[in-house]
Each structure stands twice: as C-alpha cells, then as structure tokens.
Amino acid sequence: MTPSRLAVSLSLVLLAGCAVGPDYQPPTPAQLLPAATAEAEPEAAGWWQAFQDPALNRLVGAALRHSPDLASADANIRQARSALEMNAGAQWPQLNAAGRVSRDQLSRRGEALANIPFANPQTLFTDYRAGFDASWEIDLFGHTARGVEAGRARLDASREQAADAALRVAAETARLTLDYRYWSLRADNAAAQAGWRAELARLTRLQVQAGLAGAGELEQAEAERLRADAQLQPLLAARQTALAALSPLTALPTTALRAQLDGVAPEPRLPPTPAAGLPSELLLRRPDLRAAERQLAAASADIGVATAEQYPRFSLLASGGWDSVRPGDFAAQASRYWSLGPQLSLPLFAGGRLQAQVRAREAGYDAALAQYRKAVLQALADVETALSRSQAGRAQEARLSDGETALQRQLGFARQRVAVGEAAQSHALEAQLQLAALREQRLAARQTLSADLIALYKALGGTPTRQPPGESSR
Fold first, then answer.
1. Which CATH class is domain 42-91+142-310+353-459?
2. If DSSP codes are grouped into helix, strand and coil, which group holds residue 105?
3. Mean pLDDT over residues 315-322, rounded?
4. What residue ranges do the domains of the chain occupy?
5. Digit-coded pLDDT (tens) for 87-133
6. What is the pLDDT of residue 96?
7. pTM of this prediction exceeds 0.85
8. SS3 sequence, 286-344?
9. CATH of 98-138+314-346, one of 3.30.980.10, 3.40.50.150, 2.20.200.10, 3.20.190.10
10. pLDDT at residue 465 greater than cutoff 50
11. Do residues 276 and 387 touch, judged by C-beta distance below 8 A?
C-alpha cells in the first residue's frame, strides 16, 4: 500500500470514530437533590399575596424559579421554538456544498461506452469533483406557510402550557404552605387539649382519693386523656407530609422550609372571595384554555399542509462546480460545470395516501375541537364548584367563629366563678376544653376554606377581576 493510500485509510478510520454532540453523563446527586442550605428567597408577586403571608410569597417565588415542572415546560418552549425555526427555514433558498474523490471503473459493455469509436477506451479513472447545489421552493399553495403557521401556534400553545404549569405550581405551593400552618395550629390546639385533659384527670384522681368522686369518673377522665393524646399524632404526621410535599415543588430541603414556616406566626388570613366574572373572560384568563385554542389552530394549519401535498410543487434548482479526472486541470475553465432551471413536481398517483392524510388531519382537528370544548366545560365546572364550596365554607366558618366567641365569654364567666369560689377548677377546664374543641372545628373549616379559595383562584386563571361587594379578608 502506498503512503498516500495509507494516510487516506487512516484518516477514514479516525473519522469513523468521531461523533459530534454531547456524550451522555448521568446527573450527579448534587444536581438532583435539593441543596443542603438555601439562600433567602425574595417574595414573589401574584394572586397569592391576597393571603398576606410573607413566607408563602417567598415559597411560591422559590417554586416558580426552581420547580422541575416549570423547567420541563421551559424546555418544551425551546423545543417548539426550534421546530418553528426549522419550518420557517424552508421558506428560504437552500445551499449545500459537496466534494468527492473517487476511483471509477467503467464497464466496457455498458451504455456509457456503447457509441465510442475506439477499440480500447480508458475505463479506469480517478475523478475529482467539488461544487454547490442550490434550491428554492416557491410556495405557491401554502405548503410551507401552513407549516410555519402550525409551528407558531404550537409555540404559543407551549407558552400557555408553561403558564398553566406555573399556575398549578403556585396553587399547590400555596395550598401546602397554608396546610402546614393550619396543621401546626391544630397540633398546638390538640397539645393544649391533651394538657388540660391530663390536668382534669389529675383533679379527678384527687377527688377519688378524697371520696368526692367514683372510680367510674376517674376511668372516664383517663379515657378522655388518652383520646386527646391520640389526636395529636395524626396532626403532626399530616404537617410533616405537607412539608415533605413542598420540598420537590420549591427545590428546598425540609430543614430550610421548616425554618421559614415554624415559629410564632399569626393565623393565616382569608382573602375575599374573587368574583367569577363572565364566561368569555374565563376563556381569556385561563392559560389551559388558551393553550387548547392554540392547539386547535395548529390542527387547522396541519390540514392546509396535508392539502397542499396534493398540489404541484414548483422549485428553482441550480448547481455548479468543477469536475476533472486530472488533478492539475481541476481549476481549469474546461472542468467547470453548471445547471440552472425550474422543477415542477405533481403527484399523479399515490394509492390514496394523500387523501387519507387530509382525512387524518381533519380528524385531528375534530379531536382538538372536542378537547377544547371539554376544557371549556371543565373550566366552567371548576369555577362553579370552587365558588359554591368557598361560599359554603365561608358561611360555616362565620358560624363557628360566632360560636367560638360565645364560648370565650362562657370561659370568662367560669373563671370568674372559680376565682370567687363558686365553682371548682374542673369547671373552668371543662369550659376550656369545649372552647378548644370548637376551635379545632373552626381551624379545620378555615383550612378547607383556604384550599377552596386557592382552587377558585386557580379555576379563574389566577387573575380575578374583582371581588363581590361586602366581603373583606379576615
């Protein structure tokens, strides 16, 4: 083998081992797990500010910046934008360059040498060729334009889907944050009840020893104490569950979340119930409905692409370069070649494939229309459900608040009677326990109402237009 051929062979072997693009590396645990420490997150502005909770605002901001769901949605936007750019690129002339060196052996009996009047023509050549190819499709029937239209609609849909993902992430973060606060308040209330039950059991034990109460009363007091102790653990477990669910949303460790949420905090405020507005406003506010409409637009454009496949396609083609069997003559005038002219392509028979393709795209449009209508109906149902639940929950919470106020007055009277010696200490403890039991009901009702209000904000697209008259936060 000659040195030149050896060099060529080695070059080909080396090129065969090359591969462009990134080599896959599995993500490291540091990339997947939340950081051990977290920087202070700024508060984020949005509908969740109606709850007037700075920690909630910070956690929602962290979720909107670090949520894997939103990172995936952002990647989908970039993918859709690239697809649009690929479709739009087909509107412009395409230019390619090529070059080759080949060793060619012609057949002496083939048609290439059939009319050559030489006895022994040369049939072995080394051919050197380099040149350019250009093409430009004139989009007479909108094949490319409809593809660009579909790509632009899908890009818009991906943006709206990202906005919908942000709305869902914000709503879930707000719900879990308020759940954690209410579970904490309810656990504190249950711990207080357990302490009062223990004190009541102690007083009952002293009464039994003094002969003022029977064994049955002591057993009842002990059973109530054990029941109060048992009620505390499920509340603590539910609080920890809410904290653990916040971690993947915010990409923050549970220790950092606990540091932001624990401590003395006021009872979460309830914002006014946002007004539902008109159904036509809902179509504009909810990102999932806007995304469904954009998907419908893309499906309509797909019909145009499939229809244009049945019509002629007109292109301008051009090529030129150099071709020679002698390296020394490669750049000579005689080695040049070129070609220029139009090309018309007309599908005559495709076995029904093109017509079936149009019918498939029309069916896709019908499916997208049905999905859009379903999304609209579901959105209206979501608003109606969340609105009715929040209204019923607000009425229940108001009644329980009034009842708690009445029991607080009764507790004050009971303490006055104990102070002047008209009643035993157990009388005040019983009143305190009644108040705590009603407070547990009110806290549970407010927790449910908070979740219903968040669901209503989410159902309204996160942008309520106004609030009903006569309502205020409390």
1. mainly alpha
2. strand
3. 92
4. 42-91+142-310+353-459, 98-138+314-346
5. 898 888 999 999 999 998 888 777 777 777 776 777 888 889 999 99
6. 93
7. no
8. CHHHHHHHHHHHHHHHHHHHHHHCCCCEEEEEEEEEEEECCHHHCCCHHHEEEEEEEEE
9. 2.20.200.10
10. no
11. yes
Burial (CB count within 10 angstroms: exposed 0-12, middle 13-18, buried 19+), residue 174: buried
Give me the torsion for CA of 219, 225, 227, 231, rounded to 10°: 180
Tokens coding 202 = 């102690």
Q: How far apart are CA 224 and CA 205, in angstroms?
A: 14
Rounded mean pLDDT of 210-214? 70
Tens digit of each residue's pLDDT (9 = 90 or more) over 141-156: 989 999 999 999 999 9
pLDDT for residue 264 is more than 80: no
Query: Measuring CA to CA, which residue among 178, 107, 149, 397 is closest to residue 273?
Result: 397
Dihedral over alpha carbons 205, 211, 215, 216 (to 10 degrees): -100
Per the structure block, which two tokens stand in for 407? 């029991």
313-324 β-sheet, strand order: 94-105, 124-138, 313-324, 336-345
Residue 68 has which token pair? 């894997």
Backbone angles phi, psi at 341, to 5 degrees: 170, 165
Average pLDDT of 355-373? 95
Q: What is the pLDDT of residue 130?
A: 93
